[in-house]
Amino acid sequence: MAYADALALQAELVVSRREGAIPDTLLLLEHPHVITLGSSSDKAHVLADMDERATRGIELFETGRGGDVTYHGPGQLVAYPILDLKPDRQDLHQYLRDLEAVLVSTAAAFGVAAERREGYTGVWTPSGKLAAIGVRVSSGWITSHGVALNVATDLSYFDTIVPCGLLDRNVTSLEREVGCSVTVEEASGAFVEAFLGMFT
Description:
Layout: H1 3-18, E1 25-29, E2 34-37, H2 50-56, E3 59-62, E4 69-72, E5 76-82, H3 92-108, E6 123-125, E7 128-138, E8 142-150, H4 174-178, H5 184-199
Parallel strand pairs: 2-3
Antiparallel strand pairs: 1-5, 2-4, 5-8, 6-7, 7-8
């Protein structure tokens, strides 16, 4: 799904969730190549200029989520939870930790030992960053945006940014970690199981 379409869909679902017209909802999708800038982004962390982005087919979006610069593309599982955190989950930091725990469990389903890192948001292995998190919590404690898990991602596209503003930090993927093919569909199943375990 094009990133602009996903933004529009999330905006609609946030309103519907706030009004009680829909239950908590989880969007799972892939984006075409896109660089996104969060609310604390430094534009200097976008390393590819307009010409290079055009040549490589990479869009650029400023978005309302937290965090710095990130990349989305084919082979990456993007999950956008549209959740009402009321009444007992009104703690943004805990919500981020809970999403990290879901990602750690997802990686474990493939035999990959992923972990949090103190002072940072996201999930790592010794090889590099496996998943990024950037969320938005709007009025009424309704969440949007979410997580990006590198599954079978072409990691060369991360050369176009300073991922999450972290210099000298490598990125990795489930496929690289397990040493064999992993599909986004397979990762989605493991993610949903872990997500339901955490949020239901």
